[in-house]
Write a structure and sequence with these properties.
Elements lengths: L7 E6 L2 E7 L12 H4 L3 H4 L7 E4 L2 E4 L2 H12 L9 E2 L6 H13 L5 E2 L21 H6 L10 H4 L3
Parallel strand pairs: 5-6
Antiparallel strand pairs: 1-2, 3-4
Length: 157
Amino acid sequence: MDAVGTNIQIQARGGEVMRIVPRVNDEVNEEWLSDKGRFSVDGLKRRRLDRPWVRVHGKLVEASWQDAFVALARRLDGVAGYQIGAIAGDLCDAESLCALKDLMASLGSPNFDCRQDNAWYDLSTREGYLFNSGILGIEEADALLLVGTHPRHELPC
């Protein structure tokens, strides 16, 4: 639930997640876990989109996964990659973003984005976005440059 990559342990009973606790990693989160990460377990139990829905005659109806993928394949059949686009929301996790990127590549579409503020990053080379410093390097830094962020409002509590 954060951009740091906090190490967690998920404790479950049967198939139900009961709680999320920190896993000690001195290089990333030490023994701490944000409230957002700790209480995100609530999203697994309530208000969760856990089955596919398909629009039929203008109304959303519950569908099987097979029916949902068939409907998606029919809709995308014959559509050129440049005509397909995807936008991910601010709260999307890294695994979902990677899966979306792979899907868009398989459809031949370069049109995907997850930056809601229209920021631009040069992704043609790793030097455009990678500063080669880990989390521990922050403590040793003489100065930090934060661009397009407001940590006090954006970081989990």
